[in-house]
Amino acid sequence: MVKFHTGASLLGHSVENPQSPDEATLERVPNPHEGQNYVARFTAPEFTSLCPVTGQPDFALIVIDYLPGAWLVESKSLKLYLTSYRNHGAFHEDCTLRIGKDLVALLEPRWFRIGGYWYPRGGIPIDVFWAVGELPAGTWVPDQSVPPYRGRG
């Protein structure tokens, strides 16, 4: 189970990459603009995990959008958490939803969505989408801007 922490204890310190999501720590910091309708986006264009059957690497573009409540995710902890999947064997759907559910548990956002745009293995890309919450009227959320697969990139 991923560890949650309030504060930015990883900033300014050299830390080892966690070897799995279970060893990672996600940190949150107070949102200085709580109550404002704005969307924060994180894009991980080089996300990597392992196929749980073959052990071969799987690659994805992960796009995370959320409308913060009281908390923001601390970006260094998010980078380390996402990197921890490089040694983690799980199917595309499991990786995408676990990332989303871990972040929702940490942040308690007003609205959240994640898009996992996976590069093909065996000729078929698998894209995974998950969202929770209601987006307030008038909140601008850009399209995730990931084209359908035609050699993405």
Give an account of the 3D structure.
By secondary structure, the protein is of the alpha+beta class. It has a single domain (3-133), classed as GTP cyclohydrolase I, C-terminal domain/NADPH-dependent 7-cyano-7-deazaguanine reductase, N-terminal domain (GTP Cyclohydrolase I, domain 2), CATH 3.30.1130.10. The protein has helices at residues 75-83, 92-107, and strands at 3-6, 25-30, 40-50, 57-67, 71-73, 111-118, 127-133. A hairpin with a 6-residue loop joins strand 3 and strand 4. It is globular and about 45 Å long. The mean pLDDT is 91. It comes from Methylocapsa polymorpha. It is found in: Cytoplasm.
Sheet/helix structural class? alpha+beta
**What order do the strands of the largest sheet run in, or round the barrel if closed?**
3-4-6-7
Q: How many β-strand stretches? A: 7
Instruction: Please summarize the sheet with the most strands.
Output: 4 strands, antiparallel
Defining traits:
EC 1.7.1.13, 2 helices, 153 residues, 33% strand, 16% helix, three-stranded mixed sheet, GTP Cyclohydrolase I, domain 2, GTP-CH-I_C/QueF, alpha+beta, four-stranded antiparallel sheet, 7 strands, globular
Quick structural gist:
The chain is an alpha+beta fold and 153 residues long. The chain has helices at residues 75-83, 92-107; strands at 3-6, 25-30, 40-50, 57-67, 71-73, 111-118, 127-133.
SSE layout and pairing:
Elements: E1 3-6, E2 25-30, E3 40-50, E4 57-67, E5 71-73, H1 75-83, H2 92-107, E6 111-118, E7 127-133
Parallel strand pairs: 1-2
Antiparallel strand pairs: 2-5, 3-4, 4-6, 6-7
